[in-house]
Design goal:
By secondary structure, the protein is α+β, with helices and mostly antiparallel strands. The chain is 30% helix and 29% strand. It comes from Microvirga puerhi.
Length: 205
């Protein structure tokens, strides 16, 4: 190999090391952002735990197939995984058609699931639209769960046990939702609110 060829080979090796270094940091950052352990990511991607660990420590140059499997498990494009900037922003867009809708039994309360479906087991976020008199009855969630209802328009009341509280636009009600609870739209105008349910809050004694 001539001098020029050796120089080109050195440049390619350096470039591969740079990409590999950024790749490891990106995989680790995304894995931690999704709160995944190495074992969980290995199970979801089909890539051995030891290989993922080596990638994150920049101790190996993974094949394109391995990168593709990891990107699928982390729900990101392969281009993003290969991006060389640690400061690349994460922006995900959901269209109206992508947003799941739930209806109360009386059909008067509409909940759009606007939170991230990946967090639904511990954090749920809804956009609530209610007709006057609409009622949303819910069974208790797991122990220690907390719900927050922030009113944007109209007026709502929340009943938990024998306690009832009302909130108008600009006000927020926070309450235990690990027991049966009811949200009602009161007044003569439609109600609009956001509801956040934290399913793994610390137990309140």
């Amino acid at each position: 190999m001539g001098v020029e060829g050796k120089e080109r080979h050195r440049e390619l090796e350096t470039g591969a090391q740079v990409i590999s270094g950024h790749l490891g940091k990106t995989i680790q950052r995304l894995r931690k952002a999704y709160n995944l352990s190495l074992s969980e990511l290995a199970e979801q991607s089909g890539v051995a735990k030891s290989i993922i660990s080596q990638i994150e420590r920049n101790e190996t140059n993974p094949t394109l197939a391995t990168i593709w499997r990891l990107s699928q498990a982390l729900d990101v494009s392969i281009e993003r995984v290969l991006a060389t900037s640690d400061e690349e922003p994460f922006i995900e867009k959901s269209t109206r058609a992508d947003t799941p809708i739930l209806l109360s039994e009386d059909g008067k309360v509409r909940l759009a699931i606007i939170g991230w479906l990946k967090t639904i087991e511990w954090l749920q976020w809804y956009d609530v639209q209610a007709e006057p008199g609409g009622v949303l009855d819910s069974d208790g969630h797991q122990r220690g769960s907390i719900e927050c209802l922030s009113v944007l328009d109209g007026e709502f009341e929340v009943e938990v046990g024998d306690v009832i509280q009302r909130a108008k636009a600009g006000e927020t009600l926070r309450y235990r939702c690990d027991r049966r609870h009811t949200v009602r739209a009161v007044g003569d105008t439609p109600g609009h609110a956001t509801m956040v349910c934290i399913l793994k809050a610390a137990v309140m004694d």
